[in-house]
Amino acid sequence: MITKKYLLIFTFFVVCSSAVIGQKKQIIKDGLIGHRFLTWNAVIRLNQIEVTRDRNVGVDERSLHTPERVKAYREAIAKGMPGGKITWALSWLALKDTSANYRAIHKLMAEYHKKYGDEVTFIPGGYFANAYNTRAQVNLDLHDALQMVSRIVGNGYRPKSIVAGFLSAENQQYLAEKEGIHVCQGNIWSQFSIDNQDGDGSISYPYYPSKEHFCKPAQGKSDFIDCVNLDGWTIDFLAGRREGFKEGFNSRMGVGPIETIGKYGQEKGTREMMHSTAIHFDKGVELNGFGWVAEGWELCLEYKFDYITEYLKQVKARWPDVEMVTQGEFGLTWRGHYKDNSFDYRFVEQGSGIGGSDIDKEIRWYMNKDFRLALLKDLNKSTGFKVIDLTRYDLKAVEPKDMTRRWSLMGEINQKQTRLQDKPRPIDSISQSSHALIFKRYKNLPKN
Does the predicted TM-score (pTM) go above 0.90? Predict the structure, then answer.
């Protein structure tokens, strides 16, 4: 006979179990938390940097863009990550060209969207649209190019995202409000004194940008842009704190092939790629609830495509649950979870010993709506952690009005150490207002 006491206990157990089960269902339905994502962007151009519709900078790449290379490239990815999807980004001239090779490539794009679920989209200005074009011209390029993409793929196709390298806040707002596209690869995290545009100062994981500056997360409804801003490719945080090629190292080193395989060969280069991947797929998942690694590869790169297969196989073997999705799918998954900039990202890395990834250093990053903060520690010394970057987002920010390469958002202390004020310092020595802001959010930051 069941007494009233035991009936109450049983009812309590059922209610608690249902709550737990409901929570698990929510996590699964959510699609973001508990998952590891890999996105892969492949760029196809005619010229190295097509700065405007009719002006180029760099070398002609036509001979490196053939249907045979496209097929071999896509097959290498399929071998390494069966079922994986990628994002193809075509430049203005690659969309416009009517030669036999590019007509065949256009057909392959439509085929790969149907066969693999790949995304096909546009890359304006060869990564650096705002360095060479007005915002009005960029908007016009986006509008016209998106129509060309739709015609190439057919059946009413519309991409879910844009690949842009850097893209101004006004242009990202245009994408969201006029074109209905809510995902943009619109910043290249930590880029400074390298390539054709600077843009240090942003967050390395997804965020909604402010109308004031594309590197700044929106602070509220008044400056909110409903366009998920994504990093271009994942880099090693320790390498990324350097200015350009300072000390003989490449600040872009991470999962990209140029700075890894191209510099150190397959074995060592792939080891660094895996190290950079692990930052996000191991500790990163524990700290942030999900992990994301972004790869960017230009089809013109004359590396063996076997390198792609090998890296992807190693990723799949080490993290069998990894999901290789299009950039648009990932961005919209994040958008489905975060309705505003309520994220709180944290990253921890000890160097790999390869290139600028100092094996005797530990770096910790804290990134949220209010600020980004980096702490660095020399593992061979007892001096503890020092602040190497503090960029506040609660302060007013302004983008350049004219076309220029200088688009960085430089805070109180910047990791690149290009100003006198950027010298690493103990956290207790930063400004009083910044100190209060930081410790309001993080009560127990490491000092030793």
Answer: yes
